[in-house]
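Sequence, please.
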């Protein structure tokens, strides 16, 4: 599905507003390099609910943190991702589609217990994604 936004047009970008999008170190590096942005311009640190390899500590013995895409305006649950372009009406597009994070590339799949599974809470209507789609 590289470059094809067809599947993404079916839900009016609800996934770009409704999820906390986790970032890997590689995601941050790729977005920073290709978009010429500092990580502080698009990331937010949050307490990591699933301690593991992607988390980090800001202080010894402190809460394990992880990175996610920031939201537009004040960070709140249903605000659009910082990279969503609002084009009028219900039309929205990802402003960094070719550089989007891994979590966005594999959506509607996700990780649960170390396994790749289809998320039970997707906004995509049935049939939006072919099983052999790659992003």
């Amino acid at each position: 599905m590289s470059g094809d936004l067809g599947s993404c047009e079916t839900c009016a970008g609800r996934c770009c507003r409704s999820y906390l999008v986790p970032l890997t170190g590689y995601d941050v590096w790729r977005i920073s390099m290709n978009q010429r942005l500092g990580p502080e311009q698009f990331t937010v640190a949050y307490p990591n609910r699933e301690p593991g390899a992607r988390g980090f500590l800001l202080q010894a013995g402190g809460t394990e943190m992880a990175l996610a895409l920031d939201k537009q305006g004040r960070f709140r649950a249903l605000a659009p991702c910082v990279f969503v372009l609002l084009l009028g009406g219900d039309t929205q597009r990802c402003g960094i589609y070719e550089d989007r994070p891994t979590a966005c590339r594999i959506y509607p799949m996700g990780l649960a217990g170390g396994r790749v599974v289809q998320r039970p809470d997707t906004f995509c209507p049935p049939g939006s994604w072919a099983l052999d789609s790659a992003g």
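The longest strand covers residues 64-69.
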